[in-house]
Amino acid sequence: LLVGLLASTAGALSMDTVAVGNTGNIGELSGAGVAGGWGPDRICGAVDYSYRIGKYEVTAGQYTEFLNAVAKIDPYGLYNTGMWSDGNGCKIQRSGTSGSYAYSVASDYANRPVNYVSWGDAARFCNWLTGGDTEHGSYELNGATTSEQLISVTRSANARYAIPTEDE
What we know:
single chain; two-stranded antiparallel ribbon
């Protein structure tokens, strides 16, 4: 989960960012054909605006803070049991029952990247960073949870925090 940051951070959560330069970059050819990479041939990396991006990936500790703030009930499935139970999980554990869920992260995993996070989870994290609400802000999610619902969600023009595009 990598969050592109388009402004300074909100609330108590602190995230280091770096400026991305070369505004107007034309990009370069990428793909399985001529470029010898993966996917269809296309020009990648072209951006015509300035932005900031997270210097580091979102950590398990930061995501745990998010879960404790918004997922006492967890109607959007922001917690995945694999975070704790899978040997490759980020060691976030949930305790309690719905309505009083609490989350903790193993101390030696707090600064490691979070995993088992979907695109919808990441969009809700971005919205929370923007204003504490999971459904509105950088993305208008309005309760969307299925792939069919989430595929039509786009980044707001005035997004403060966002999931980077492939080009970004």
